[in-house]
Amino acid sequence: MRRAPFTVEPMAIVGVGCLHPWGAGIDAFRRLLADERPEFGPYPVDRFWRTPQAVRARLSRCRGAFFGDLGFDLRQFRIPKVYDRAVSTMTPMLMQAARDCVLDAGYGDDGSGLPRETVDVIVGTCFGLDSALTNALKIHGLVWLADGDPATVEAGREALRARFGSSSHDRLGEMSSSIASRIGAMYGWRGRIMAMEDGDSTGYAALRTAFLSLAERQSDAALVATGQRFESVLTPLALAAKGFDGDPLSTTGAGAPLCEGAVALLLKRLKDARRDGDRIRAVIAGISARRTDALELRYAGSVDAARECAREACLQAGLDIADVASVECVLPGLGHVGAATAATVFPERPLTCAASVLGHGFANAGLTAVVAATLSLDDEETPKKPLAVVGVGLGGLTWTLILDRRDMSRAAAGGPFAEPASEPEPIAVVGLGGCFGPNLGLSAYWEALCAGADGIGRISDRILPRGAAFSGSGARALTSYAENGGELNAEWEIRRFDAKRLRLFPKRVAALDVAHKLALSVVAEALDDFGLTPARRGDLGKAMVVCASPLCLARERELSNRLHSPELGSVLGPDESRLADAERAAEEIDSFTLDGLLAGNIAALISSCFRLSAETMAIEAACASSLAAVHVGMQALRLGYADFVVAGGVELPVNMRDLVLCSTQLMLANDKIAPFAANADGFSPGDGAGMFVLRRLSDARRDNDAIYGCIIGVGASSDAASMTAPDPQGQALAIRRAFADGRASPDSIAYVEAHGTGTRIGDGVEISALRDVYGSGARRDPLLIGSVKSNIGHAFAAAGAAGLMKTLLALKSDTVPPTLLRRELNPDLALAAIPGAIVSKPRPWPASDGPRRAAINSFGTGGVNFHLLVEAP
To answer: Taking residues 409-416, what's their average pLDDT?
Structure first.
């Protein structure tokens, strides 16, 4: 049952940064919104890799606002020259917007004056970055070489390297979270780092996430930045199939012209901004959303949903709908979802739409509208009355923000606002679902762990064509020296994916990425484990689905590769069958294609297929993504923003692209991953997905739910020191924050599920960080330590889910399963100083004087760190 309406203190916008093809900076943005702008131009097809002329012709009608050569000097952002060819174009775009935002807020070039330890950085992007699609295309070229003789293969690899480049940092440069990490590192910030995507509602999702962290006092400021570029001919073709091309304020227009750009906002709690003497451009006084489920990715929002979320946002702001003076719309202009919805909810109010002037920025559309509204409020000639920003998004989300002048906010009267509880309520885990490598389902996974089974084996030739892509030893450009991994059981789809139950027809299924389907099958198990029935669904309250995954899915890379195969032909020699396939790929693009490209659609599908009407989003925080997803869901539950959460992660890194990129970075084990070993030399990748059903403990107990365990605390930090090397101080900071959040002592933790990267440096740093926190008390028994990566490999975005699931099952069964020690234990690990012990055989987990507790540690590239505490119910 839903609790009282979610209310928190309003948040102040104290800084704004803008970047648009027609102008940079807030003053230019203001002029453009006054309609001092050029005409929309053609799609910049010459920017991209070669594609058939017939495909280029299909884009001739696409118009919008697109960047030319941006010409950024990466050194101004403290990016070393070694990263030049690996950094995405989106990286300096968002860093420039962030810098302008901090300067606009009055904090100077170095951000001095901001609370460095507690500034979050949240970025939002949509579709693959140019670095990701370039990596995909050059590695796809190896498939063209698979049948060649050794000399031909070697010459082809060299030609690919010369054309596209090859750097040991290529894998890092394609991750959106690395942009957030670079922004944080630019200012030495140590708060939470993450990237997210929810299609054209990405801006709202990023704001909501920042709102939750600020409201819970886990951060004191948040830099929220979104950006959009179109890096392949695939994106506009897929969007055109959905109808983007027209006037967004028209009730008959087909859609809005597209635009590129970047926007950054700096947020603080309103009372803190006043205390610090910040110039407050506007106040976000209310925030709400409702989702209308639809099995196809489309604009399915209803007037009733729009009216309900508008009422809730106004209630938070202490207003009636009638008090709202005007409405800024984030609209795609697709006929019935145009201005009519906003006009019905806010009758007789002036409607404006930045997209009608600047173009529809997709991932950047939401923040662009917020800036337009902020500038309106900040104008001294504008009457000081509150206004609404209303958005409708693909996937059926309708959302509303209430923006107010600083002297009219109800905060001027002192509240009332919901304060975070002095002792936050534990979050109960009431359902689990998982598939990892060969282990299909929760029972198979747990049985394999208890038996000490080795789920890492020789990767099939279908995934790793050894003639073209396997070197056998040492790092060589565009090859993998590793051939072992936790490959997903080939029968998983036949045995686990039930399209009929999910109400997905064959054409819809065919358009989806493997990650969509694997996540759906795992969530089905988790909701069955929870006991979801049609009768219960209506009593669960407001739902949220947060899914960790890479933000550029395999389906997008595959289709982009096909469309741009003429580029490979220019490098490797023409292949008529593949060139013809490029034209077929363009002809196959239909209204379902976009659905399979978006990572955010994983969570949206989960909501729709299981009729949850949930707010949804995708999160990427490198290898800590799953714990980041759980953290966001936990905050929403604690604050009453959600009542029922599905959170977890999915990724399939056992693929040629990841093997080659990670080999170039010398990240992989030559044989198999050996966490904590003296000669540990890297990890083995492992496919997997794990999902959790979360509720507040009081709700779970009231409804007699079966509880695996309770999450009592989460801590997060960023290293802000190195993009690749782990930092013990950064990890220790996240661990300390978890204990502060959970009001617990390190001495009460019996077991730590470690990240366990299987490298001498990574394992040594992790154990040192554990020593710094867990070794500071009077521990009676050694701290037990293990790593599930020894059994299933490294599941990247799903790695934290694998560790959390293992730990919860261990709590339930009173048994700690073994970590596979393939080699001699590293004697240099600081285990004795904790004291700690690696669990190398099954260990009973007896009852103790207090609740049995454990922790899960997770960190990732770019300096992302998360630590999560659980206890037995």
So the answer is: 42
What is the C-alpha to C-alpha distance for residues 504 and 524, in angstroms, rounded to an integer?
14
How far apart CA 207 and CA 205 sit, in angstroms, is 6
Helix (H) and strand (E) counts for the chain?
33, 30
pLDDT class for 724, splitting at 50, 70, 90? confident
Neighbours of 140 (CB within 10 A): 20
Q: Which residue has the tokens 């966490």?
A: 675
For residues 498 and 689, the answer to whether their CB atoms sit within 8 Å is no
- Burial annotation 727-766 (CB, 10 A radius, 16+ → b, else e): bbbbbbbbbbbbbebbebebbbbbbbbbbbbbbbebbbbb
Q: Residue 669, Cα to own-chain centre: how many angstroms? A: 27
**Which DSSP symbol is given to 428?**
E
Q: What phi and psi values does residue 779 have, to the nearest 5 degrees?
A: -75, 130
**pLDDT tens sequence across 115-160:** 999 999 999 999 999 999 999 999 999 999 988 899 999 999 999 9
**Distance between CA 613 and CA 289 in Å, rounded?**
11
Three-state DSSP string of 598-612? CCHHHHHHHHHHCCC
For residue 128, which of 164, 88, 93 has the smallest C-alpha distance?
A: 88
Neighbours of 713 (CB within 10 A): 23
CA distance 593 to 165: 30
Please report, rounded to a whole number, the percentage of residues in the chain having pLDDT higher than 90: 72
Instruction: Return d(Cα 328, Cα 370) in angstroms, integer.
Output: 8
Tokens linked to 570: 């220019």
DSSP SS3 for 349: coil
Distance, CA of 252 to CA of 109 (rounded, Å): 47
pLDDT at 411: 43
Strand ranges of the sheet holding 63-65, from the earlier edge strand across to the other edge: 41-42, 63-65, 258-259
DSSP secondary structure string for all residues of 68-135: ------GGGGT--GGGTTTS-THHHHHHHHHHHHHHHTT-TTTTBTB-GGGEEEEEE--S--HHHHHH
> CB under 8 Å, gap of 24 or more: what pairs does 157-160 form?
157/468, 157/477, 157/478, 157/479, 158/477, 159/571, 159/572, 160/478, 160/571, 160/572
Mean pLDDT is lowest, of 460-464, 533-537, 700-704, for 533-537
Specify whether the CB–CB gap between 825 and 859 falls below 8 A.
no
Q: What are residue 221's DSSP bridge partners?
A: 119
843-855 confidence digits (pLDDT tens): 999 888 889 999 9
Distance CA 614, CA 764 (A): 41
User: What pLDDT does residue 421 have?
Assistant: 64
Q: What is the CA radius of gyration of the chain?
A: 26
Angle, CA 651 vertex, CA 645 and CA 657 arms, to 5°:
160
State the Cα–Cα distance between residues 711 and 798, nearest whole angstrom. Answer: 18
Cross-strand partners of 548? 619, 649
What is the percentage of the chain residues whose pLDDT exceeds 70? Answer: 94
What is the distance between the alpha carbons of residues 853 and 711, in angstroms, rounded to a whole number?
Answer: 10
Classified as helix, coil or strand, 705 is coil
Measured CA to CA in angstroms, residue 33 lies from 82, 106, 176, 197, 405 at distances of 39, 24, 29, 26, 20
Of 603, 109, 585, which Cα lies nearest the Cα of 397? 603
Residue 80's region, left for phi above 0, alpha for psi from -120 to 50, else beta, is beta
Is residue 350 reached through a cis peptide bond, with omega within 30 degrees of 0 on the bond before it?
no
Q: Which tens digit of pLDDT belongs to each residue from 491-508? A: 898 889 999 999 999 999
Arithmetic mean of pLDDT, 385-402? 91
- The Cα–Cα gap between 11 and 270 comes to 5
**Closest to 554 measured CA to CA, from 465, 470, 463, 678:** 463
